[in-house]
Amino acid sequence: MHFSIHRPTFIKALNIVMRAISSRTTIPILTNVKITLNQDELILTGSNVDISIETRILQSDTSAQLDIQKTGGITLPASFFTNIIKHLPDENLTLSTEGLQALITSGSASFNINGQDVQNYPHLPEMEDIQSLKVSAAQLNELISQTKISASSQESRPILTGMHLELAGNSVKAVATDSHRLSQRIVTLTGTETTVNADVIIPAKSFNELQPLLEGQDRVDIKLATNQAVFDLDHTSFYSRLLEGNYPETDRLIPSESATEMKIDATHLLGAIDRASLLSHESRNNVVQLLLSQGKAELSGNSQEIGQVKETLPVKSVVGEDLDISFNPDYVRDALRVLNGKTVELKFTTNLRPFIIIPEGETDNKQLQLITPVRTF
Predict the structure, then answer these.
(1) pLDDT score, position 302
(2) How high is the pLDDT of residue 193?
(3) Three-state DSSP string of the chain
(4) Number of folded domains in the chain?
(5) Would you state the pLDDT for residue 305?
C-alpha cells in the first residue's frame, strides 16, 4: 500500500472512526484502525463490537489530494497512530507499507509503526432482511436528544440501556426509561419516500456516538435488519447492534388524568432547580421539594450539614388540589433542557405517583418527560 493525502482531511476521517474504537476490548486487534486502499478510495474502519464506523475518502474529491500509488491494507494502533498524524509537520503526508510495517512521512519527519494483518480484522456485520428509509438528519438528532436522557446506564437491566423505536408508516415513536424517569417523543418523518414498520431497541451509547456525525448532514439513510442498524451519512456508514428482548410496556405508566397542574416558563423553573440543587447535592438523598398551594408554587432544597433554600416560583398558573411533592432535581433539569426553553406544563396526580412535563398545549403525548417522585417519609 502506498498513498499520499491532505493531512487535515485524513485527520477528520480518523476522528470519525475513533468514535468506535475503545482501549477496553477483549479482541486486541479492535484497538487498531483498519486502513484499506483500492483503486478509487481510501477506507478507514473502527469497531468495538457494539458499533462499527467505516468512512471513505474518494480519489475524486480534489480537496483530499489523495494520490494512490499502490493498493493494499493494514491495521495500526489507533490512538498512537492518530496522535502521530496530528503532530506531523506538513500539510500532506505519505503512508506506505512493507509487510506489516507502515512508514509515515511528512516534511522532515518519518515514523515506522508495526501493524497487524488486515485479514485478521473482523468483517463488518452482514445485513439480511433489510428495511430502509431516508430521514432528515436534524429531525433524527432532535428525536435522539429528547429521548436518550432517560436511558439507563446500569448494565443490570441491559434492555433499559437502549432507546425503543417503533416505526409505523412515516411515524416513529421513541421511548427511553431507566424505571425512575421516562422520555417519549413521537414524530412524523418529513420528506420520507418509504414507509417502514419495525420495532427495534438501539443502545443509547450508540446514539451518543452517532449524534456528532449528524451535524451538517441533510439526510440519513437508515437500514434496519434483524440484529443491526446502519446509518449512512455521505461517505460514512455507522453500524450499531440491536438489543435483544422485549422493551417494557411504557404506555401504562403515563397518567391519563391529573389532579394538579402547574404552568411555568421552562427557563425560570430550570434556574430555580439549579439553585435548589446546590443544597440538595450536598445532602444524602439529593431531593428537592415542590409545594403547590392556593395558586402559588414554592421550591425548596435542604442539607442538614449546610442549610436550606426556598424560592417562590414565577408560575403562569397553578390549578387543582394542593400538593407537596419531592423529586430528584437532576431528572427534572435534564427534562427541561431538552424542551428548549418553552413554556411547560407539569401535571400531577398524587405526591407518590409519577408526574409528567410537557410543552404547553401538548395533548397527545407526542413529547413528554415523566418523573417518579421520591418518598421522603
Answers:
(1) 82
(2) 66
(3) CEEEEEHHHHHHHHHHHHCCCCCCCCCHHHHEEEEEECCCEEEEEEECCCEEEEEEEECCCHHHCCEEEECEEEEEEHHHHHHHHHCCCCCEEEEEEECCEEEEEECCEEEEEECECHHHCCCCCCCCCCEEEEEEHHHHHHHHHCCHHHCCCCCCCHHHHEEEEEEECCEEEEEEECCCEEEEEEEECCCCCCCCCEEEEEEHHHHHHHHHHHCCCCEEEEEECCCEEEEEECCEEEEEECCCCCCCCCHHHCCCCCCEEEEEEHHHHHHHHHHHHHHHCCCCCCCEEEEEECCEEEEEEEECCCEEEEEECCCCEEEECCEEEEECHHHHHHHHHHCCCCEEEEEECCCCCCEEEEECCCCCCCEEEEECCCCCC
(4) 3
(5) 78
Report the pLDDT value the prediction gives residue 377, as an integer from 0 to 100. Answer: 62
Residues 73 and 143 in one domain: no
Q: Is 249 contained in some domain? A: no
Asked whether residue 139 falls in the same domain as residue 223, the answer is yes
363: domain CATH number? 3.70.10.10
* 115, 135: one domain: no
Residues 113 and 82 occupy one common structural domain: yes
pLDDT at 263: 97
Residue 102 lies in a domain: yes
Could you tell me the mean pLDDT of each successive run of 10 residues in the chain, 377 residues long? 97 97 90 97 96 97 96 97 97 97 97 96 85 91 95 93 93 95 92 80 97 94 92 96 94 93 96 90 86 95 84 96 96 92 92 95 90 87
Residue 259 and residue 161 share a domain: no
Q: Which domain holds residue 157?
A: 131-241
